[in-house]
Structures are given as C-alpha cells and as structure tokens.
Amino acid sequence: MDKLSHKISLILLLFVFVSQTVVGQTGSTNSLSQNLQIIKKQLVPDKRVAILDIELKDTLLPVIVVSGETDLPDAKKQIIQFLTEKKISFVDSIRVLPDSLVGEKTWGLVTLSVANMRSQPDDASELVSQAMMGTPIKLLDYRNKWYRVQTPENYIGWMDASSIQRIAPVEFDHWKQSGRYLYNQVSGYAYDVPGKKGGVVSDLVLGNLFEVESAAKGFLKMKFPDGRVGYVRKADCISFDEWCKLKPKAQSVLSVAKQMMGFPYLWGGASSKALDCSGFVKLAYYSQGVILARDASQQARYGEKIDFSNMNNLQSGDLLFFGRSAQRISHVGLYLGNGDFIHSSGRVHISSLDPADPKYVPTRINVGANRVLNSLNAEGIIMVKNHPWYSHEN
Predict the structure, then answer these.
(1) Same domain, 289 and 260
(2) Cβ(90)–Cβ(66) under 8 Å?
(3) Known catalytic residue: 277?
(4) 6 is catalytic
(5) Where is the domain boundary, 212, 244, 276?
C-alpha cells in the first residue's frame, strides 16, 4: 500500500470542513465527525494495513482538540500545517506510532514457532493472523503485555510480548546480515542435542527462520531469536541465500500446498499447524520466497487479472477467488489444472470448478482469478530477497 497516495488533497478536504464549522462549534461535532469518518476511509481504505484514528473534539474554549493516533507521519504533518496556515486554534494530541511507549527497540523477531495476532490486546479477542518464528515485525504500540505489530506484508494486529524478541535498529541490521536458515518441512522439532534422541526444545513449522551457529553430524546448531539454542536436521532446512535464489515455479508452490492436504482450517491461521484460506495460499507461496498480502480480499487486488470465464485461460498456480461478487470476496484457492483447485475450507482439500465433477461445490461462486508469477516484485507481491525487512542489501 502507498501510504503517501491521495494524502494531501484528502487532508485539505478534511480541514475545509473544520474551517467552515470551527466558528460556530456548538453542535458542529456530530456533522464534522461524520465527514471525518468518510475522509479517514479514503485516506486508509484498508485498516488492516495502516492506522489513522483521528478525532476532533469541541472544548469550552474557542479551540479544537485534534487527538488520536496514526502510523502515517505525513498525515499528521499535513494536518498540523493546514491548521496553522488557516490560523485555527487547536491542541495537538495526535500520537505518531511508534512513540515512547515502545521505546528505542522498535523492531522485533517472533520467538515461537507460531505466534498469534489478535484484533485487540486481549487473549479473548479475535485471531486475525499469525506470524512464524524469525518473522521481522515492526513494533507500533504497547498496552499492558501486548504489542501492536506490523508484519512484512503490512498487516497489523496485537501480539503477546512473550512471543517477541525486541531489538534495536542496529541489532536488526546485524540480524539481516547473519547466517540464517529456513525450516523447509511442514513440521518438525528442534532438539537439545544433535540427534533425535535428545529432548525437544521447540516444535518447528514450515517457514521458521533462525540463525545458525555451526553444523556437525548432519545437524545445524540453531539460535532462536530469544537466545535459546537447539539442533535441527540440516536436510530439513535451506539457507537464506539458497532460499533467495529460488525461482518460484507453480509446480513447486503446488507441491508444498499438497503436503498440507487434510490440515485443519483455522480462522486467522497462517501456519502449517492450521490455516485459513488466504493463510494457506500465502504460506505455499512464501515457501518459494514470495510474500503475498494476507487476506483473500487483499490478495485479489494484486497480480495479473485473468479471464476466468473460460477454464482454458487458467494456469496452475493461479489464485482463484470466490464470493458474492468481485467486490465481496470471501475465499481463495490455488488452481491445480483440469478444473481442480486446492483450498482450505474445513480442511485442506481439492474441489472443482466443473459443475459435472463430483468435487464441485455449487455454493463456491468463482468471481476472479489472478496470476502471481508474472507480477513478482509488483505491488502486493514481493520477493523475500527484495524486501528491506529481510535483506541487508535493500
């Protein structure tokens, strides 16, 4: 998402409303707030990837209070500049995230095989996504034991502090230059000695990323982001450099997807323990070094649009989208060929687009298809090796 796009004109529009109502502020808050809500939706149409929660409040004095929070510094800058130029009296209470509540360590690495991200800083709140060990995350806010974090695909949620190793920018740069390996199997374990007779230090899942200190007897001595040490079979891993050199191919993506046949569905799941539909698609591509957007409705925005009315136009590895309409997408799967697609719904399984096929599900209405592999490093589809949070060369 381009956080700078459309910002100036929309913020100016906001303060046209302010300047028109600030003279007679009594009774103006409701209408102004309604206009503000419209403008905030235009500035940040997708609240899953950016924060702009700004409120205007009347006071007993001839001033307005501009409060709230945003992770878009330019948005606040334009707001303040416009108010100043219009000579409107105001109190600035906008927090720009991250702020002092986070401190100097504004980056983090996930320390668990899989860490949950929730909609609110509460164990009982909705699971919105997951991040796997070694995923670099930006720390935006802190509340009690929770950090509001942003993942490499810009997805925002709250994560328990116990699953994060906080690091300063200089430490983050060091990590990006370290010798890292990716766990390349669907699931497994790290042991306390080099051999399966050792005790378990942690479980591992496809996509876990960790530093390696040494290698011996077919095992890698791995260092977890929180400093723990374990041993993992070298044959089950791929070096970061090798991973970055992969040339993503549809058959490789689909091979990984098929290894998760029968795995359970979990709303918000994005790991090989359990997955929702978009988490499944995202993980299959991530195994080949490609970072996709998180949710199905987001994934549908990016890549080459394919005419799905004729199955002959589809290629293996294409993303198929389902829902009420192209504007109301609720599900995604991976096209296998011959009318079949693999997806996570209840469990990972294969269905068909062909009404004559027993695997056809009439309630699944195909409303779109995108091709990812023709759009690598375009918006919403970025290779790990080109992502500045992973590679020190960017």
Answers:
(1) yes
(2) yes
(3) yes
(4) no
(5) 244
